[in-house]
Design goal:
The protein is mainly alpha-helical and 112 residues long. The chain has one domain: Winged helix-like DNA-binding domain superfamily/Winged helix DNA-binding domain (Arc Repressor Mutant, subunit A, Orthogonal Bundle). Helix content is 45%, strand content 9%. A two-stranded parallel sheet has the order 1-2. A two-stranded antiparallel ribbon has the order 3-4. Helix 2 crosses helix 3. The protein is globular. The mean pLDDT is 82. It binds a DNA duplex (13 and 13 nucleotides) through helix 2, helix 3 and strand 2.
DNA sequence: GTTCTGACTGCGA
DNA sequence: GTCGCAGCCAGAA
């Protein structure tokens, strides 16, 4: 039923992440209907430039920021997450528990 | 057409 | 807890 490309669905899945919550690359990819395509999500974000896209909510499976500490985006992502109420400690997202609820949020039926 | 790289993941040490 | 290796898929050169 698509018409929508994989990239489009991935972007949609990312935008579907509510403020104050975080999601993993695999989670997003799965949500987009592309299990195992986590890398594709990363590649997309690396090329995206949409300020409306909450890329900072996307973390690795470990609940860690995908950037090294010395990366400029690292501090930016961390700061943004904190601003949304996410507890970030030295690059690690605390309260990853949110990801569990995220599962229900992401997999919830559309239209509501 | 082939080759390389990558904001990844999972498992083992 | 951290570190390293191999597997995987897709886009870009």
């Amino acid at each position: 039923m698509p018409g929508k490309s994989a990239a489009d669905r991935i972007l949609a899945a990312i935008r579907a992440v509510p403020r104050g919550e975080v999601a993993g690359y695999g989670e997003i990819a799965r949500r987009a209907g592309l299990p195992g395509r986590a890398r594709m999500v990363a590649r997309l974000l690396s090329g995206n430039d949409d300020p409306k896209l909450p890329w900072h909510r996307i973390l690795r499976s470990d609940g860690r920021i995908a950037f090294p500490e010395d990366h400029p985006n690292f501090s930016e992502q961390q700061q943004r997450l904190r601003a949304e109420g996410v507890d970030v400690r030295n690059g690690r997202v605390k309260g990853l528990k949110a990801a569990a609820t995220l599962d229900e949020i992401l997999w919830a039926p559309p239209g509501r």
